[in-house]
Structures are given as structure tokens and as C-alpha cells.
Amino acid sequence: MATQIERFGQAEPRTGLAAAAAAVPRWLVLLAAALVVRAVTFGNPLVAVDEQFYWVTAERMLHGALPFVDIWDRKPVGLFLLYLPAAALGMPWGILAYQLMALACVVLTAGLIARIADRVGWGTGALPAALLYILMLNTADGQGGQAPVFYNLLTLGAVALLLPRVRDRDGDPARVGRNLLAMLLIGLALQVKYTVLFEGLFFGLWLLRREAVLGASLVHLARRGLGYAAMAMLPTLLAAAVYAWLGHLDAWAYANFGSILDRRSDPFIDLVGAFFEVSVPLAPLLVLSCLAWLGMRRSRTLRPVHALLFGWLIAALVGLIVFGSWYPHYALPTMVPASLCCAAFFARECPGRRIVAPTLLAIAFIAGTLSVLIVQAKRGNAAQLATIADAIGHGDGCLYVHSGNAMLYGATDRCALSPWLFPDHLSREREDGALGVDQLAEVDRIFARRPAVVVMRTPFRGERPAVRARVERYLHRLGYSMRGTYLLGTVPTTVYAAPEISSAAPPRRAASKPA
What secondary structure does DSSP assign to 225-262, as a single string? Predict the structure, then answer.
């Protein structure tokens, strides 16, 4: 195990304040750093639209809703299962609970980054690399409970099990068992989000090559390869079996796979901008990783374990690029191998090395903090959500959020009239034809059932105008009245009430007057 001196990147004895700092357990340093950069989001139910929907879906599951049938999305069911314990606490404690779960995963992932760096000979770069992961998450919308924040720990756990050992031998049951467990972790990660696919394929191919290098026969190679693939597929096959048993295999298959292929691409100019947003946070990590790789090649210090880690980084990049549509949080999975490979740079003896790590960490801290504050100001906070929830009311009658925040369903406890609860599914242009239902027909079906309250934000880029026009036509034709327009962050959001409730009592909170 690395000593405290190694962990802080020094080889000489320390005295005074430096010695006291070096004596601090590494896990405590990582926990403190994560708390400092993430605490500003604690308790805010509007951190990101995705995790709002994950939480609401889990909350509806507790009341009997079945994902892909009663509430629709194309994320794997494992992601919603992760949110179940937090959703069981309700609001507001359930919001804090999932954010603390995310915090725990971040700290554990960072600790494992440092531990692996120790094991592969990059000990003096272990702590800076682990801190870099924590700080860089905030630059890519990873300050809350995005899916990669959770499954990064599973993927990294698989890598820790796959690391070659000096005593590895062909046919060693312990080694094969570790490999099987590693691929099971990949399978579990796939049931959190399918973007792990390319990393899993790389690990599987690497394992086959490793078996061949250790002298496995073709028979054993084929047998173990099938075993590794089966373990990676097991969680997904189990999910399919459950839905088949329930009689909803078709719904599960289309939501998980078919709809992904049917979804349209964004306009080219939007794709360029989105890829830029993903690339900027990754750029410094990739540059340092490349420099580390080149330096190790020149010095001939590359070992098989290093090839595994750098190959993993390449596989993660391929997975990022191939999916073809990007949001900032799509960079989060690549940040794990990139941060880990940066440990190789931080550990090298070269001019200026000692100043690179603290400089990059300082920049990451400032950039991440500013990103979180700007995003929170744009998306809103708990007080604003409570205001609009009071304007909607908590009585009988169902809610239809055409565009806006899915968390309004959780904040008001109102029923929904459609499985397509995530507002973007029925309102975005690129989702047309990728839902298993026609957007306009589903809007017709919703208004045929007369929602008591309808919520609609101002028009946004990527919205399908025909759907918005259809909703506005229904609001006018059926006599809905405007209850008020309220700000969620910087976005004006309007609440419309059906005629039978338009004369209801005004919102309880004095702060609920229209913005």
C-alpha cells in the first residue's frame, strides 16, 4: 500500500504542517473535496432534468407504475431501481437522499482511481488524479445524480478486478472468478445505461487476449469467452425475462433498443455546439493522458496493465463519439479513465510536473464551481418549485406538463394521463417517430381525458412547433384559463387550469403571485 508520503507526491521526509497534511487519510481528503464542490446542490430538486425524471419514475414505481409500460423512457430499468430508496423518502428528504447517494459514489470512485494508480506504479499521481475526477464532474453537469455518476463506480470496479497480477496463470480459478465478477459488474452498469457497451466490448476483447497470452487453448478460450459474455449479458437478460413473464416484452424491447435507433438526429449546427460542450472539459485530461502515453513509450516503461488503462480510455472515447448526439454529461464516463491516465503524467519526473497538478486542480475547481452556480441560476431551486407547485395545487385532477420540469409531478402528487411523462418526449422534434406512438395523437388522447392543469414553458430550441400549436389550440378550445406565469430559474413557465377548477382558491403561498 502506498505510504502517505507517496500519496501526496513527495519522496522526502516532511515536518510541521506538511507532515500533518500528509498524515490525513486519503479518503478524508476526497470526501472533503466532494462535499465542498457538491454541497451547493444539496436539497435542490431541479439540479438537472434527467435526474428529476429518474426520481419521479422511481416514486411512481413505488405506487405500482411499471417502467416502459405505465411510464415510458429508453433508459434501462436498473437506473430507476437505483433511485427507489431515495424516492421512498418522498420530498424533500428523498431529493437529499439521492444526492448523498451520488456523493458516496463519487468519493468511492475517486478513491478507487487513487488505489488503482498506486497498484500500477503511478502512486505519486494518485491523489491529484482522484481529486481531478471529483472537480471535473462539475464542469460536465455531473454535480448531481446523472447516470454515469453511479455506474462509473461499477465500471471502475470491473477494471480493478481485471488488473493483471504477477502470479496470474492460465486456469487459475481465482483469476477466472475475478474476470467473471468484473464482467458481471459491466452487465450491471449496462442496466444503468447502455452507453457502457463499448467499454464492455473492449474489456471482453482484452480478456480474450489475456487468456491467449497466458496460454489458454482454443477450447478454453472459447469456453471462457462465452462465460464472460454471458455474465455481461445476465442483468439485461434477467430484465427481459421479467418483462416477458409480465407480458410486456415488446414494450421493453422497443423502449430499450428500437426507440434508440428510431430517434432523429439534431441539426448539424446543434451537434457541433453540443460536441464542443462535451469536448472542452475533456480536452485537458486527454492532452495529459496523451503526453503520459508518449512519455512512457519513449522511456519504455509501458506494461500490459498500462495498455489496459489507456485502451479503456480509447474505448470510452469511441462510445462517446459513436452515439452521435451529445449533452455535457455524456463526457462523464470518459472522465474516469482520463483522470486515471492523468495519474501517469503527474507521477512522471519531468520539468514543470509539480506545478501542473495544482494548477489544473485550481482551474477545475473554479470552472466547476462557476458552472454549477450558472446552471442553478438557470434551472431554478426548491423555493421556485414550491411556488409553482402551489399554483398548480395538490387536489384532484391530473396534471399534464407539456414542456418544463418533470419534477412538478413529484412536487404536486398529481396523476398523469400518459406514459410519456418526460416532457421532451412529446414536445421535441427529434422524438417524433421514436416513441412507439404519434406525438400529436398522444396529445389528442391526453386532452380527451381533460387534464385539470396544464403546464407549458416558453418555446425552446428543438421543440416541435406542430405539437405546441396543437396544445395551444386545445387550451383555447376547451376554455382553460391562465393561472399565472412563474419563473423556474430563468425560464417562464405558465400554469393553465381547466374551466371547472379555474375559480379555485388562489395558491397558498404569498410568493406564488405570477412572475
Answer: HHHHHHHHHHHHHHHHHHHHHHT-HHHHHIIIIIHHHH
